[in-house]
Amino acid sequence: MIANPGQPGIVLKHVEKSFGRPGGTVTTAVADFSLDIAPGEFVTILGPSGCGKTTLLRLVNGLLKPDGGSVTVGERTPVPGPDMGFVFQSFRLIPWATAARNVGFGLELAGVEPARRQETVTRLLDRVGLSRYAGAYPAELSGGMKQRVALARALATEPSILLLDEPFASLDAQTREIMQLELLQLWSERRATALFVTHSVEEAILLADRVVVMGAAPNSLRHIVPIDLPRPRRDEVRTSPAFIALRNELTGIIRALITEDPNSPFFNRG
Ligand SMILES: Nc1ncnc2c1ncn2[C@@H]1O[C@H](COP(=O)(O)OP(=O)(O)OP(=O)(O)O)[C@@H](O)[C@H]1O
Ligand SMILES: [Mg+2]
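Above: query sequence and magnesium ion SMILES. Below: predicted holo structure tokens.
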């Protein structure tokens, strides 16, 4: 693993988070989750729907406080802000601002002068393939375009922590493969500490130093698979024997998680 000592690490110790529901029922979203993410490490998270992945990212961001255990980012309690790039599962673009203004919004808040802001926005819109849509409003963009604006916005402030919640889920397969390599390139320029949620086993392997497999509470962290593929990683790595072996290993782990869990709707259908 190549870490970047210049970036903060993320330390999760016995993290617990539950949500109360009207009527008094309580859902435990994350239970006893401990993980030490090295400065500059890229960790991807796989796990079935509802197992607590988004909740985990929100805890790392500081949007949520844990009920038990502790979360530290660079040895401090995390607070949301420009140093935490977050791509939300639901995009969360500002509807009344153009794509360009959405991308540059964090820089605008930080008081970055317009010429420099413009330069960053133009460069990032180009990197995500949306130069021609700089002046478009979110309502005029497809789901995949909105998702790419959200990614560019998360990168614009050059955060030292990147939290990416299924950032490519709305892209077509070909665009998604291009964006995965583009993200790797952008990430390698600064090597922020990254936590990336996905449902794609191949995407998880391609990007990560380690893949974390989550399951439902009370046992949130199920497996950690180190990915020792050399960097920089190019398209060809997807067909290498080492990649295919990792894919088979992870697919088996996830299949077992879904078919061997008595609480899963697909219990025993393996
Ligand atoms: N604000 C909330 N209020 C109540 N329950 C919540 C809240 N946020 C999450 N939950 C519950 O916590 C559990 C974990 O949700 P979370 O969104 O973290 O799952 P996820 O792994 O991201 O799922 P998906 O893959 O579908 O995005 C679910 O049972 C969900 O219903
Ligand atoms: Mg989620």
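The chain has a mean pLDDT of 94.
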